[in-house]
Design brief:
flat; about 70% helix; mainly alpha; 8 helices
Amino acid sequence: MMAVTSSRQNIFRLASPHRSSSCQPGIQHTNLQALKRKTPPATTCSDHCRAGQELCYLCMQRALKNFPIDLSENRRIKEEENEQILHQYQQIKDQDTLFQQQCEMLAKREFNQKISAFNIGVAEAKKELKNSKCKASRNGYIFQRRLLTPPVFLKQQQYAQCLTKQIQEKKQREEKKKQDDEFLDRLEQVQLAEDLAVQRQHFQKEKQEQTEAYKKALDFQRKYKPRQLPASVPDSVEPIFGSSDSLGRTEEQKQEAYNLYNEQMKAAADRKRIAILNELYEQKTESDLLERNRKSLINEHKKRYENLQRIHKTLEEAWNDNVIMKQLKDYEENQYSKAGGLFLLDQCNKYRRCFQCKRRLSNSGQTNIWSNSFITTGTN
């Protein structure tokens, strides 16, 4: 534990911010070297070779004042110190973990020893108890004032009486149930007999009524039996057929014949009207079909014409675009021929500017903002 404490103290000493002053001499030495190694005054831009342009006055002064400082050595030293501190911390952490594991193992070992000792003691106690049971004799007790045990046959008589009583009760229940079933069967038979008698009476009554109805019908037919046809008479002045009919019967027959004629005429007219309506419906259906075909044909011609117009318009637009592109191309060629065949970079050589700030070389701090702005007020 003392080693762990000392190592932790060392880590805290290394990680404390007051110890960082050890790095200051290295940093100061590096800064001094960087100050000694100042860059020579830059008279040209780093990309001078690309456009042939020099630096302006401001960029040149800025380049003279700027000098690089190398901090890589300080960064490397600091990283090494951090790695060393981390390594020491990891070692301390591993030692603590190992110590905890050892403590847990010792505690577990002691607990197992206690359990083993307890089990051994229990086993020995059981063994001693078992051996003592075999050797020792049991102590008996005699009750002097205890009553005599009653004989067995008394209880047997009680059990026999109870069983006999249960058997008798069971027989009585069975007999009563049997009597009830027989009574219900007889009652059902009586009800069935009564139902059959009622049905038989009803059937006989219906049969008698039907017989009487047949008898009445036969009597009526016999009473109002039509006469036989008269004998054939070659020359008769009076009407032969219908002479026996009464006047009311003749009028009734005429009315029936007239009604039948009207119904037949009405049915014929209905059939004719239905046929005409069907024909008209078919004509209308055919006319609708023809009209629909005519409209579809017109729409098809219209779509075809619109498609042709669209294609024609597209071709005209494409032709106009090609003409405009050709004119632009001719204009560009004309401008190129007027420029003397120089490219853009070649033309930039005429206008020398600083590559860094993109200003003219004679610039010495001027700005493009006007110092005096004259505003002309307007009238509302």
